[in-house]
Each structure stands twice: as structure tokens, then as C-alpha cells.
Amino acid sequence: MKLSKRGLQVKESSTLAITAKAKKMASEGIDLAAFTAGEPDFDTPEHIRDEAIRAINIGFTRYTPSSGTLELRKAICDKLKRDNGLTYEPAQIVVSNGAKHSLTNAFMAILNEGEEVIVPAPFWLSYPEMVHIAGGKPVVIESSSANGYKITRKELESVYTSKTKALILNSPNNPTGAVYSEAELKEIADFIVEKDIFVVADEIYEELVYSGVKHVSIANFNEEIFKRTIVINGFSKGYAMTGWRLGYAAAVKEIADIMSNIQSHMTSNPNSITQMAAIVALNSDQTSVKNMCVEFEKRRDYICDRAAKIPHISFNRPDGAFYLYIDVSGLYGKEVKGTAIKSAADVGSVLLTSYDTVVVPCADFGAPNHIRLSYAISMDDIKKGMDRFERFVSENY
Fold it and tell me: Is residue 275 a contact partner of residue 56, using CB atoms and an 8 Å limit?
């Protein structure tokens, strides 16, 4: 019996697999320094948790409209207007079970079989798989460290074809922490409009930008780019709600209607309890979000200072998200602890087996010479991990 070719080509999420392995090792009593976390190490703010408890106690545990409650969609519209200068109606908002779900819905809504989506590398590893699931073809383009790992119009032009349907744009970026400036986004927006394609703008790390850097939504420039943009966001990163599973998309009504119809048959609706909590998250004081961002900036500064003192590696200082993206190709060509170092995966393997330190090799992010270190862990764990990373290099190079 033959299985689905489309299903078979979808890869396992290597970040989730590495994280699961790290948790298993930690449960066995191994003192790990794990830089794997793609989630804040903060608790969900108390006032948000309290609202979820209240939702359960008042019996708000039944089906909601497939695209989310009207009250939450109104709150999202208010947020997009207040924070991003974008004007949407509730009918243009689709609330889903996490931003990952929103992204998949978006690709399923716009792609026909074989149509192409431009995916700038390095990329979050799920993007190509989502495009495959929707029947599309991911077309990867390389960015450079010299340009801060941000793509330009020239690079977009080099891969554009008659089959190009969309661009996926992630700012702030996972894994690089790069944040596109207004001028850089304007250039890309002009390309999108001229080619009459879509841009799927993943803004999930929006709240986590540092050193006065400003997040700008690409949908903001004019009506033409607005109607070609599908904005993706959610509550996982900024509100430390990864396990709550709630994200949303904002798009022109024609696209929102398709996404809502797809979702109605796949999941019925997003979690009712989480929706109630999300309304409070958006409408209440944002001090907890700002405090978390301040703490992440301190950790970023520390981990960058430590990494800058380690020879044979290189990195760009991240302006957003909570990852340090490191080029480790300068460590290749030696045998360490019985392992010939030929790739970032080899570096990660030795760090894990000989130094009890977990990093994310980025081959599945389109970057086989890089590793990703998350600083969404305690400062003590960051210090411990960087001590071990430093020792790995000093002992062997």
C-alpha cells in the first residue's frame, strides 16, 4: 500500500527533536546547558493566567466561531492599528491554533499545485515544509552576513519566475535575529507590488527588538502592498504563551474567508479558553512584555560579549528575537574527541557528548555552517553554556 508522496517528503522538525533529546538527558540527571529553547523561559503573566481560569469557571469551554470570537478579533484589530498602523476589520482576522497553524492556512489559501514561494535563507525550518504541505515549491535564496542576513531586491529578481506566487518574510528573524529597516522593507514591497505576488509576513517576534531598533510591518506602506500582505502574528513569544497555542492572520477578506473555511474543516475553531486569555493579553497593560524584552536585551549583550572572545567563530549581533546565529566553519578540519569536524552538526555533536551543551545545528535552516544559540534561558545557564563552549574551543584549537 502506497502512502502520500506529499506527506512522505515532509521532514521531522529537528529543533523539536533536539529539544526532546535535551529534556530526556536532563531528566536522567545530566547537568546540561541547553541553548535550544524557542520559547521564553518566563511564566505567562499572572493576569493572563487568571483570565483563563475565569473562562473555565464560567463555562467558556464550547465551540467558538471558526475564525475566533468577535471580541478577540476586535482586540487584534485594535492592536494592529495601535502598534502597526494597519486598519483591518474583524472579518479580515483569522485566529488559529498558533502562528504555525496560521502560516499553514495562509499557504493553503493562496497556493496552487507547483506554484513557487521564495524562502530567504537562513529560514525557520518549518517554512519549506509548510509550502510542501500546501502543494507549493519552496525556492530558497541565500542572504549574506555582509548584508546582515537580509535579502535585497536584486536577490529576489534573480529567482523570480512566472510561477512565483509569494515571498515569506520573517522580521525579526529566526534564526539570525535580523530586523529589516523601513527602507529595506520598502524596496521589497515595491518588488511585491510590481510582480503582483503575495508576501506572507511572519511577525511573531515583533515585541522582541533591542537597542532602539523599530519593528515595521511591510503592509504599512500603501494600499497596493497592504492587499498583497498576509500578516502572521501570535501570543507565543511576546506573552510567553507557547503552550497555549494561539496565533492569527490578517489579510484582505477574500483570503481571510478561504483561511477560515479551511480551518473550519480542520480544527473547527481555536481554543476557547486561550482566546479569552488573549483578549486580556492584548487589552491590558504591556509592562510584562516590556520587562521581558529588557531582560532578553541584557542576555543578548552578555552572550554576544562572550562569543566575541571565542576564536574561530563569527556572528552578527542580533537586533531582535532571542537567538545568536554563529558561523562555526572556522572550526572545521580537526578531529575532536574522535569526531572529524566537517559541519555544524559535528560541532553540535561534540558539544553535546563531550561538553554537555546543546545547540541547534542549522542545516535544516538552510545554513549547514551555522549553529543557533537561544538566549531564552536563564543568565546562569547562559554563563554555564558559554563557559563550556569556550572550553571546547580552547582545549581543541
Answer: no
Nearest to 373 by CA among 290, 300, 291: 300
Q: What contacts 41, CB < 8 A, 6 or more positions away?
A: 376, 377, 378
The pTM score is: 0.95
Nearest CA to 109 among 236, 250, 203?
250
User: 27: burial class by Cβ within 10 Å (0-12, 13-18, 19+)?
Assistant: exposed
The size of the chain, in residues, is 397
Considering only CA atoms, give the Rg of the chain.
Answer: 21
- Distance CA(143)–CA(305), nearest Å, equals 24
> Per-residue pLDDT tens for 260-277?
999 999 999 999 999 999
Model pLDDT for residues 81-109, shown as the tens digit of each residue? 999 999 999 999 999 999 999 999 999 99
CB contact at 8 A, 347 and 361: yes
pLDDT at 149: 97
E strands, 87-143, in order: 93-96, 116-121, 137-142
- d(CA 170, CA 193) in angstroms, rounded, equals 18
Contacts of residue 17, defined as CB under 8 A and 6 or more positions apart, other chains included, come to none
